[in-house]
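TL;DR need structure tokens for one chain.
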Amino acid sequence: MKNYSGVVRSQKARTTRRLSWAACVALTATHAALAQQVSPAPASSISEDTALPTVKVTAAQDTTQHLHEDVGSGALGTRSQLDTPFSTTVVTSEELQDRQPFKLGNVFATDASVSDNGNAYNAWATYLTVRGMQLDWQSGFKIDGMPFNSYGITLPYEQLEKVELLKGLTGFMYGFGAPGGVVNYVTKKPPESTTPVRSVDIGYYTDGVWTEHADLGGRVGRDGRFGYRLNATHEEGKTYNDGNVRRDSVSVALDARLTRDLKATFGALYQERHATGITGAISTAQYTGTGLPHTMSGGTGDLSGPDQHLNTNLQLYTAGLQYNLGENWTLNASYSYSKSARDRNESTYYLLNGAGDYTDSRFAGKEGHQLSLWQVSAEGSVKTGPLQHQLVFGAAYQRQTNDYGANSFFGQIGTGNIYQPNANTFDGASNYYTYRDSDITQKALFASDTIQLTQRWSVLGGVRYTDYEQHGYSSGGATTSTYSQNGVVTPTVAVMFRLAPTTTLYASYVESLEAGTVVGDTYANRGELLKPLRSKQYEVGIKTAHARWSATAALFRIERGAAYANSANVYTQDGESIFQGIEMGGDVRLGSQWNLGGDLMWINTKYERGAANNGNRVAGAPQFVIAGHATYSVPYVPGLRIGAEAKFTGNTNVRPSANLSAPGYLLVNVGASYATRIAGYDVTFRAAIDNLLNRRYWEYQYADYVTPGDPRTLSLNARIDF
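>> reply
TL;DR here they are.
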């Protein structure tokens, strides 16, 4: 939930009743002492002899905006948020521990630019809207900068070092992708020092989900040459919507300092997750009313049944080499392979009227995706006369394959009412199988140059050159559609001005292309492969970071090709979507007890130059969002910290036709953490209550879809560091 801890410097964790405390302690018995991995200070992207001095802020002094924290920017390399000419957000491991998220929307609870569209216990758990645009589950999510398909996948947040959000277009940085942005999950790495890391914790979620987790890390060999980090989680129990969940996750990170200049890395993440009694999706495609039915609790079991389920499997394997060519140059080579699979039996409720009647259509089948990436890059600095250049250039080859069910089922199985238990059942076949439905290949060259013109002025230019090819196939293996284009250029340019060593002004321009959509099962043209869409982004912003306060602001305009379902329920590309607005935020520490922060976004959106919907607000884009948080360190009880956060989301159009909207709503969350020592060990207790007021509200989920918002939930956690 919130940033209440701030006291204990440790990474988050979870595992379950079946991974007993005794087993966790046995795993950690080989370690001699506890230590926390401290991230090295972020390297400046500008050389010291030409730039204003870098201001370093320690973790204890940093604000919750973390502007000195490094953020991955794909082909731009890694820079601090302060040095990145785009809007970004970083959520740290400590904040993840305090928020105890069970879906991605919880992670960004205090970011006004991010609206939650997810449901923790169905295939929509990672759906987010950023600046009014939904993230692309095919290319908008990375793990350690490497691609994976996120549809239906809820990551083990307790095993992450941080979560990064790069807002807006990312065409140069990551290749083809929707303009909402990119979420990058950063896994825990081996500690830099030889002091080991070891902890276990146990947690509880409403209405009966238990988790346990172990985190082990250290270095072995001469001078700590070999490093390791192991995280294991188990989760199991009864969910708040009368379903059940069981999850087992393990991740490992290894590194080897082979020589003074050569380092090798390996990473793996494996997760198996089973959820039954999942909540079905509510479609308004057949709804004739002008206002949604009265709200209902997301904790109801009326929209689920024991036959409905979502079973997912995620595997990710990465390997890399890093070689220091000299004092100013580094060569990187990396490879990743990810595989995700889904077996789901899930209803879509086609809402008919304001009384809540619906027709129940069920999907049952299997799906899967594979993504592989080879990438080499070089990063360094050179001088040409009075100018200092920070250069990044490289090449990448990425292949994505999508598998869908050859014998999956989608059809109406009955009727019902959203306020009454769903009596329809469909067990389906047990022999579902998949076929290769489509594949996408990208071959890219990229290069960027950040030129330091004076002590204060710098300019950035980057370009990605991509050969793109996409195919669609029938269940018999025949090619049904092909789209290819060589020499696709996606540039980015930026101008940056250091108003002071702590303050950066910037203006940037980015172009991007997003992969053509394979139309989903609920539309009349299901299975059709649409062409890629081009987007453009203009942004002007400011970031300032000080020891006790920080602030950011950005003006942006995004032009994107529009896609929506027309009156015949055909998903089509038509016209353009315009998003323009402002976002700003700030954080301040008052004395030694108080931390206050706020964030807001105002956005004006509309459809243009299409056959329909011109002038309407874009579906899914709330006009106004405001968020705030406050934490208080209780002086009379050392180690105790309490806090609250609130977020108001304005009215949101559900349809491109703008004749139906989800009303605005306010959510209030509270929590506390208490850090102490028991029997010589560091122990931290955490409690969090989300939706304290138990507000009932409709949440926009996808164009023409809504879902009841989460009910009031309680999370508890106890952690011990050895």
